Amino acid sequence: MRKVIIDCDPGIDDSLALMLALSSPEIEVIGITIVCGNTPVDMGFENAKKILKFIHRLDIPIYKGATQPLKKPYVDALDTHGADGLGESFLDPVPGYEQKMDAIEFLSKTLKQEPCTVIAIGPMTNFAQLIAKDPAAFEAIDTFISMGGTYKAHGNCSPVGEYNYWEDPEAAKIVYAHTKMIHMIGLDVTRQIVLTHEILDAWEPKNKKVTDFIRKITSFYFTFHWHQEHLKGCVINDPLAIAYVIDPSICSGFKAYTDIETDGITRGESVVDAYDFYHKPANAKILTQVDVSKFFTLFESRVIDHEEN
Ligand code: BDR
Ligand code: CA
């Protein structure tokens, strides 16, 4: 079974990603690290606990990481994810869970011990801090998947900026400069993963409890997407990064040298040298194609048909 660490900022779609990961037998989640992003890090920690409680997996350790981006002032995404970061579902707090160490310490200690896949579905501040503190631990990462960036698709918080890279572009730049190969699950593929009311209606008879829970945390997200871009549904980015690890045939793309812009109107832009102008070794696999129906079939079979739900 593949050992996985999920670095996240829950977050509505991060929560769906955790639900998918923890219902999938191909992967063993050995830890969840939290970064400030959609929510401040303390709120992200509390939200992760709420999700783990719902799926009866409070055995999974959670570690809080960075509270601020490296250089830019922190900007949350509560306008997108609701005042509680979980679509204003205001789930009950989960008391009595202590973190044993901070996220950077956990990553530093764990990554050198055993081959591990990292799935980063928030800003990459924790990994930039890890590179500064313990570069050997970062180099030991077996496979690094990042939900973030965009190749040809429009940005979601500026014309060219995807939120995770826009939020901490210096961190993203450092990670791209140090990675052997990063798998970029950007908006080109995630914008196609649109959860609709029709999909939820079809899930309901199979598993009302889980479908009700998903409705509860996504209803705010539906409204946000309608106001923002008149979309009848919501884009659930983060679970696609998990699905890609479970079944890499869900996405395909190409390898290219990639760097991240940090300032001005292009802040957070992922610049992909698709035509090899710079003759630099490829450091990224840019995923551009996605089998949408394969994704939803996988999500349904794991999260909705899951026997313990
Ligand atoms: C990314 O930004 C966040 O709002 C989502 O959780 C996702 O990780 C999409 O741009
Ligand atoms: Ca996220």
UniProtKB/TrEMBL annotation:
<dbReference type="GO" id="GO:0005829">
    <property type="term" value="C:cytosol"/>
</dbReference>
<dbReference type="InterPro" id="IPR036452">
    <property type="entry name" value="Ribo_hydro-like"/>
</dbReference>
<dbReference type="GO" id="GO:0006152">
    <property type="term" value="P:purine nucleoside catabolic process"/>
</dbReference>
<keyword id="KW-0378">Hydrolase</keyword>
<feature type="domain" description="Inosine/uridine-preferring nucleoside hydrolase">
    <location>
        <begin position="4"/>
        <end position="296"/>
    </location>
</feature>
<dbReference type="InterPro" id="IPR001910">
    <property type="entry name" value="Inosine/uridine_hydrolase_dom"/>
</dbReference>
<protein>
    <submittedName>
        <fullName>Nucleoside hydrolase</fullName>
    </submittedName>
</protein>
<dbReference type="GO" id="GO:0008477">
    <property type="term" value="F:purine nucleosidase activity"/>
</dbReference>
<dbReference type="InterPro" id="IPR023186">
    <property type="entry name" value="IUNH"/>
</dbReference>
<dbReference type="Pfam" id="PF01156">
    <property type="entry name" value="IU_nuc_hydro"/>
</dbReference>
<keyword id="KW-0326">Glycosidase</keyword>
